[in-house]
Write a structure and sequence with these properties.
By secondary structure, the chain is an alpha/beta fold. The chain has 14 helices and 20 strands. The strands form four sheets. Strands 8-9-11-10-14-18-15-16 form an eight-stranded mixed beta sheet, with helices on both faces. Strands 1, 2, 3, 4, 5, 6 and 7 form a seven-stranded mixed beta sheet that branches. Helix 8 packs across helix 14. It starts with a strand and ends with a helix. The structure holds ligand BES, manganese (II) ion and zinc ion.
Length: 502
């Protein structure tokens, strides 16, 4: 999609559809309070064209309400789309991102190829933050998951135009446009990978996709197979792959800018299970098809690395994806088996379906060996996290309050939601093994936490955040601003987090 900034008046814009924001200026909280919808636009022609519909009371400005005016008088565009932004006093860049996504999806629904979105006037969102939110939101809204539908046409938007006030300072807006593009494209890159079915996204293919991306953006990338796993003594990671005809892939992407400090070095470790049958502890058939998205954590890290290469923070970042397919077979590992992780920890396999923590254990050890001081892992790790937090917040676990504070500031800027859960020592007792150091399952109770406790064994003294994205990596419902399917959660927050070290 082409992106364009224009400084002309909204009425002069020639996109097929031009979107403007309406805000509710009523500050009365009473339940009978009537909305006072006004356009966040000072253009006289636009105000004139929208006058009738605003007077009618049809526009309430409630969040993401859409009102279309055809052939608006005095305007070049054929369609003026008014999108609600909610209460004026609370309006944020996050609202604007969703408004842009809604405009994109609205335009696509009408088979239009270009959309213009006007930076709303008179809000507390700065012009550069607005440009960025609009571009990010449009890219995110442009994604459709129906890859293999035979009637899929060229359904992508060709152009988004951001209409800025003529008086705006152009340099920062142009920079914001590029950052917005990098973030939006990165999130969609992740969603692309996650959307693919497992026969089109094996560990090998995931490695190839990462490698190609890295070549395009100028990152170093190594993709290793089973031999390297043996050499590194990654017995835990390898055990997950041993039942599958598909070889595992250890993907290592490196971003190292000139003059990067020796600390921090950020390690991004992703779970890349390209299909999770459960292995010998096999899953029920109902819903098993969803387990193609069990590589979403890995895809998150690949997408994040893509954006990091574009926005060029001054800190070294290493992305590691542990990709494998979890299958039952004559060579598969069995409950009761004991496996040794890279750091020598002996793991008793209680349930072969608790495979994500097994691949991450070695991924985290390897990140430390490569010199990472700060670790973030992302994984569709537990059904228990979905039970705890539903499909709204992802789970967050950490051994470092300061790192959490920094991460929470990043998630706020990104408009993503993570909820911190505890890691008390009592939970460690639940995964004590009789035969080995640790068990890979602590049973049903507190399952998201015992999984995180398992991972904690492998981070040693490093600062670490674990993100359990099982409930939010795949969305079951369409939203006005984003299609159902892969969400690309955590990509934007992770980039924001990395950038915060600048
Ligand atoms: N990939 C699953 C977790 C999952 C569940 C992801 C639902 C997305 C949606 C993971 O590998 C798994 O099977 N976890 C088990 C762990 C248990 C056996 C200790 C689970 O949550 O049931
Ligand atoms: Mn599993
Ligand atoms: Zn899994």
């Amino acid at each position: 999609m082409k992106t364009k900034l224009s400084y002309s008046s909204v009425a002069e814009t020639s996109a097929e559809c031009i979107a403007v924001v309406a805000l509710d200026h009523n500050t009365d909280k009473g339940k009978d309070a009537k909305p006072q919808a006004k356009l966040a636009c000072t253009d006289k022609a636009v105000l004139g064209a929208a006058d009738g519909v605003l007077l009618s009371g049809d526009v309430t400005a409630k969040p993401l309400e859409t009102t279309l005016i055809h052939a608006p008088q005095g305007m070049k565009a054929k369609r003026l789309l008014i999108i609600g932004g909610g209460k004026a006093a609370k309006f944020s860049a996050d609202d604007l991102r969703k408004i842009a996504g809604t405009a994109a999806r609205f335009a696509k629904g009408k088979n239009l190829k270009s959309v213009a979105i006007a930076i709303p006037d008179g809000t507390s969102v700065s012009a550069d933050a607005a440009v960025r939110a609009i571009v990010e939101g449009t890219f995110v809204g442009d994604f459709d998951p129906n890859y293999y539908a035979s009637d899929r046409k060229d359904q992508r938007l060709h152009e988004v135009e951001v209409v800025a006030p003529a008086s705006a300072d152009k340099k920062p807006l142009e920079a914001a446009l590029e950052i917005g593009r990098a973030f939006g494209e990165a999130q969609n890159f992740t969603r692309d990978l996650v959307n693919e079915p497992s026969n089109k996204m094996t560990p090998t293919i995931m490695g190839q996709r990462a490698k190609k991306m890295c070549e395009e953006v100028g990152l170093k990338c190594e993709v290793y197979g089973a031999e390297k796993l043996h050499e590194l003594k990654m017995g835990s990671f390898w055990s997950v792959s041993q039942g599958s005809a598909e070889p595992p892939a250890l993907i290592v992407m490196t971003y190292e800018p000139k003059g990067a400090p020796s600390s921090p070095v950020i390690g991004l470790v992703g779970k890349g299970i390209t299909f999770d049958t459960g292995g010998i502890s096999i899953k029920p058939a109902d819903g098993m098809e969803k387990m193609k998205y069990d590589m979403a954590g890995g895809a998150t890290m690949i997408g994040a690395m893509r954006a990091i290469a574009a926005v060029k923070p001054k800190v070294k970042v290493i992305g590691i994806v542990c990709a494998a397919e979890n299958m039952p077979s004559g060579t598969a590992q069995k409950p009761g088996d004991v496996q040794f992780a890279m750091n020598g920890t002996a793991i008793e396999i209680i349930n072969t379906d608790a495979e994500g923590r097994l691949v991450l254990a070695d991924g985290l050890c390897y990140a430390r060996q490569l010199g990472c001081t700060h670790l973030i892992d992302a994984a569709t790790l537990t059904g228990a996290c979905v039970v705890a937090l539903g499909m709204v917040h992802a789970g967050l676990f950490s051994n470092d309050d300061e790192m959490v504070t920094r991460f929470q500031a990043a998630q706020k800027r990104a408009g993503e939601r993570f909820w911190r859960l505890p890691l008390d020592e009592e939970y460690r007792d639940m995964i004590k093994s009789n035969i080995a150091d640790i068990m890979n399952s602590g049973g049903r109770y507190g399952g998201a936490i015992t999984a995180a406790k398992f991972l904690e064994e492998f981070v040693a003294d490093k600062s670490w955040i674990h993100l359990d994205i099982a409930g939010v990596a795949w969305m079951e419902e369409n939203k006005p601003w984003i299609a159902k399917g892969p969400s690309g959660i955590a990509v934007r927050t992770i980039i924001e987090f990395v950038e915060s070290f600048n």
